[in-house]
TrEMBL record:
Protein name: Diacylglycerol kinase family lipid kinase
GO molecular function, one term: kinase activity
Keywords annotated in UniProt: ATP-binding, Kinase, Lipid biosynthesis, Lipid metabolism, Magnesium, Metal-binding, Nucleotide-binding, Phospholipid biosynthesis, Phospholipid metabolism, Transferase
Domain DAGKc intervals: 2-132
Family matches, as SUPFAM superfamilies: NAD kinase/diacylglycerol kinase-like (SSF111331)
InterPro entries: ATP-NAD_kinase_N (IPR017438), Diacylglycerol/lipid_kinase (IPR005218), Diacylglycerol_kinase_cat_dom (IPR001206), Lipid_Phosphate_FormReg (IPR050187), NAD/diacylglycerol_kinase_sf (IPR016064), YegS/DAGK_C (IPR045540)
Cofactor: Mg(2+)
Keyword match Nucleus: no
Source organism: Pontibacter aydingkolensis
């Protein structure tokens, strides 16, 4: 990056649980000002961040830093795709899947210092029915949970876990037709998760083998679920063993197609999108520049 590099911080004031920390003030205090000239802007509404990010990319800013959870990261990154402008992340959500995958510290001060010492890599992104995603997308149960969570006033990990526990046995698998790696098959689908990064967030590893620079999409399919399987899956997610678990099937591919007769819910980076009967999911190799901590390649 040139010296000084021009940086726009985009803060989602609604993300994360309530905190009294003044993020703009911490940035002012800890950012290396001989390296960066910066400005701070705030989102006014959902869907504002892609415009603010694209505007910065069009003006030739060197980096745009998303301050928020994976929803904000998604919106900012969407505005930067295929541009020279790098994404930076100050994690402020409850899951922070992309930040965790990239080994960005969860603490605000440490994450700001990472911006001072980090370097840029180029990562893959993915799309589900033309919605870009950078961490995970999915159809079935995980999308259903994102839809209920979206309407929930309370946020945070505890609320999320309570919700999953309450709903996991009520949700029913659906029959789908899928095509992965030219192999077409019919299957029941409780959840089909598509992963660019290894985890949903909170160290729940839905795709432990995911490499964000390999040009491949990792797919995890759970056909049906009962209580024993649910407990086993949770254990495997938290211990990074899902790729070899009996309760799930794991694929690496570049492109997935899914069809259903009955509409099924889908999400991208944890944000509920809607329902559809056809899904086209693919990888966009090396499409986003990202600043990562020193030592991460
Ligand atoms: N000013 C705003 N007012 C209302 N919604 C906003 C605003 N700015 C952004 N959003 C929306 O907030 C959504 C959630 O943001 P984000 O994921 O960053 O936080 P979070 O939900 O608290 O984090 P997590 O997903 O980790 O729980 C985003 O998808 C975005 O569309």
């Amino acid at each position: 990056m040139p010296m000084p590099a021009y940086v726009r911080f985009i803060i989602n004031p609604t993300s994360g649980t309530k905190s009294r920390i003044d993020v703009a003030d911490r940035i002012e205090q800890l950012l290396n000002h001989s390296k960066y000239k910066h400005e701070v802007v705030y989102t006014d509404y959902a869907g504002h961040a892609p415009k603010l990010a694209k505007e910065a990319a069009d003006k030739g800013y060197d980096m745009v830093v998303a301050v928020g959870g994976d929803g904000t990261v998604n919106e900012v990154a969407r505005g930067l795709l295929y541009s020279e402008t790098a994404l930076g992340v100050l994690p402020k959500g409850s899951g922070n899947g992309l930040a965790r995958h990239l080994k960005i510290p969860m603490g605000l001060d440490a994450a700001i210092k990472t911006l001072n010492n980090g370097h840029i890599i180029t990562i893959d992104s993915c799309s589900i029915n033309d919605h870009p995603f950078f961490t995970t997308a999915g159809i079935g149960f995980d999308a259903y949970i994102s839809s209920v969570f979206a309407g929930n006033k309370k946020r945070g990990l505890k609320t999320y876990v309570e919700l999953v526990m309450k709903e996991v046995m009520n949700y029913k698998h659906m029959p789908v037709k899928a095509k992965i790696n030219d192999n077409a098959f019919e299957t029941d689908c409780y959840v089909m998760a598509f992963a660019n990064a290894a985890q949903y967030g909170n160290n729940a590893y839905i795709a432990p083998l995911a490499d964000i620079e390999d040009g491949l999409l990792d797919v995890c399919l759970v056909r049906k679920l009962d209580l024993v399987k649910a407990l086993h899956l949770s254990y495997c997610m938290l211990t990074k063993q899902l790729a070899n678990a009996d309760s799930a099937e794991y694929f690496k591919t570049t492109h997935v197609k899914v069809n259903t007769d009955t509409p099924i819910m889908y999400h991208a980076d944890g944000e509920f999108i809607g329902e559809a009967t056809e899904f086209d999911v693919h990888i966009n190799p090396l499409s986003l520049r990202v600043l990562v901590p020193a030592g991460m390649d």
